[in-house]
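Bumping my old thread because nobody answered last time. Still need a sequence for this structure:
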């Protein structure tokens, strides 16, 4: 019984430690033009998307998929990210 619960715990740890990943990330600007396409995420995915994407491209939309189709031609037209110490004007 103890061996079974150890095996179950190891299996659960393995399943949950893999983290989320996609094969292709695409960002559309407010005008629905592709401004970013690559296998690497354009923003920090450890934070909520509605916060991070809005900082980089207000009005933008991030779409990600497990398919790699089209991601071989990368697009990098995002505006530069604000500096960590820079505060937004309120």
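Sorry it took so long. Here it is:
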């Amino acid at each position: 019984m103890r061996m079974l619960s150890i095996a179950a715990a190891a299996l659960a740890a393995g399943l949950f430690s893999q983290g989320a990943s996609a094969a292709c990330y695409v960002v559309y600007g407010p005008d629905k033009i592709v401004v970013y396409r690559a296998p690497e995420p354009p923003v920090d995915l450890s934070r909520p998307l509605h916060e991070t994407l809005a900082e980089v491209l207000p009005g933008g939309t991030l779409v990600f998929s497990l398919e790699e189709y089209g991601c071989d031609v990368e697009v990098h037209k995002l505006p530069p990210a604000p500096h960590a110490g820079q505060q937004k004007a309120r």
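Helices lie at 2-16, 49-56. Let me know if any region looks off to you.
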